[in-house]
Design goal:
452 residues; Kinesin; twelve-stranded mixed beta sheet; three-stranded antiparallel beta sheet; 19 strands; P-loop_NTPase; ATP-binding; motor protein; hydrolase
């Protein structure tokens, strides 16, 4: 993980908590500019807790979304405008303010934009200035928005009618999220990736974001009866029409290759089956009555190779657009992950809190959420211990986030996790567990010896 930061954000007391006691908490800044946190419970028989120097910054309940954005996201935008990637994760129990931080609830007030929308607003200000110098419509810079959620080992495309998608690892070792297979005319087979909505203005981006948010799955949890029941992933990538068209061309060339490759395989099998016979003993030997038509096989393989070349040429064209662009920002990306609420804890010290009744399906979903979060935690632990094998394949969530954790040889990756927590003493266990999780991540992303 490159430059992984951990930020804590205390939300205001909810209306139902205004008469509750607040958690007694303290922060201590260390010489390495990291912060340790300590919690003192008000309930008897509950131990206090203190973290290591694992946190980068702490925001109080009085800090609005703009304050958080200016301190956490805005400093990374110059790197995005150089073509790099910045990733932001929000983690906390249900109702702690994750969605408010990432998505926002007021889409007309710039001071309360979620980080995703605020980032889009700032990027468009920069892109509009760059576009003024280029009159070619195909080279005008915009933002490509991808928005999907992960739930029960399945992905759903929120910008394509919540289309059911599949998470798979390709032959190249990369994780791909693709929709249903489409059988087209002439035997062509097309499998489209997650839809990218091209937005050429901030208003378009806001409209598409609202469309996707309307399709997010919600349900009751152990904390909150309107909890998000999925991990939502939002990607904002700087694109041009030429780049998007080139990527579409790759998909088209791949669909053309499928029937040609299938025909080559069928001919090979057909000729080889004709070329053997079975003896009474069950052995297969060359048929004396049929000569394999190698020329037919070679012709089919040659046609397959030709279409494979078309695919490679299309892929090369995408790379060429990326590397030859006069704008370094092309391909720069912001990734926001609104992790589903952590449902793993049960606060025995607060039995008076009413718990929404969950259906059997919602209970199963809660268990899957916890499995995903545990997998994410183990990936971070493996990175912290510099293990040679990191269990990215342990869940679809960690498979999808692999590239965001690892970066690449040519693209730098900057990551941060925002822990959203409640100051209510009734939520002491939930808050402590969230901070423990953040403590692990913070230690993994910093020099542990220097933190002491």
């Amino acid at each position: 993980m490159n430059q992984f930061r951990v930020i804590t954000r205390w939300r205001p007391l909810a209306s139902s908590d205004v008469h509750q006691t607040e958690i007694n908490r303290n922060c201590e800044e260390h010489p390495n500019s990291r912060i340790s946190m300590s919690l003192v419970p008000s309930a008897p028989n509950t131990r206090p807790w203190k973290s290591e120097a694992a946190f980068t910054q702490v925001f109080e309940a009085r800090d609005n979304n703009k304050t958080v954005f200016d301190a956490v996201v805005a400093p990374t935008l110059p790197e995005v405008l150089k073509g790099h990637c910045s990733n932001f994760f929000a983690y906390g129990h249900s109702g702690s303010g994750k969605s408010h931080t990432i998505m926002g609830y007021d889409f007309n007030n710039p001071h309360e934009f979620g980080m995703c929308l605020a980032a889009g607003h700032h990027l468009f200000e920069k892109l509009e200035a760059l576009n003024e110098a280029d009159s070619d419509a195909a080279l005008q810079l915009g933002i490509g928005l991808r928005m999907y959620e992960l739930r029960n080992k399945t992905a759903f495309d929120l910008l394509n009618g919540r289309c059911n998608c599949h998470v798979r690892e390709g032959y190249d070792g990369q994780t791909h999220i693709r929709g249903e297979t489409e059988v087209l005319e002439n035997g062509k087979v097309r499998v489209r990736p997650i839809v990218t909505k091209a937005c050429w203005s901030f208003d378009e981006l806001r409209r598409e974001l609202l469309t996707g948010l309307a399709l997010r799955a919600t349900g009751s949890s152990t904390i909150h009866d309107q909890s998000s029941r999925t991990h939502a992933v939002l990607e904002l990538e700087i694109v041009t029409r030429a780049l998007l068209d080139a990527r579409d061309a790759v998909i088209e060339r791949q669909s053309e290759l499928v029937p040609v490759a299938k025909r080559a395989t069928d001919i090979y099998l057909e000729e080889n089956l004709k070329g053997v016979v079975q003896t009474p003993d069950g052995e297969y030997i060359p048929s004396p009555d049929y000569q394999i038509d190698q020329a037919r096989i070679d012709a089919a393989e040659a046609q397959k190779a030709e279409f494979e070349t078309f695919v490679k040429e299309a892929e090369h064209h995408v790379e060429e657009i990326m590397t030859s662009s006069q704008h370094r920002c092309l391909g720069g990306k912001l990734v926001f992950v609104d992790l589903a609420g952590s449902e793993y804890y049960h606060d025995k010290a607060a039995p008076s809190i009413p718990r929404p009744k969950q259906t059997a399906q919602e209970q199963q979903e809660g268990r899957q959420i916890n499995t995903d979060l545990l997998s994410l935690k183990e990936v971070i632990r493996a990175k912290a211990h510099k293990q040679t094998r990191i269990p990215f394949r342990s869940s679809p969530l960690t498979m999808v986030l692999r590239a965001h954790f690892m970066g690449s040889r040519t693209v730098k990756s900057h990551s941060a996790m925002i822990l959203t927590v409640s100051p209510s003493a009734e939520q002491f266990a939930a808050t402590m567990n969230t901070l423990k999780y953040g403590n692990l991540i913070g230690v993994a992303g910093s020099d542990k010896k220097a933190a002491r």
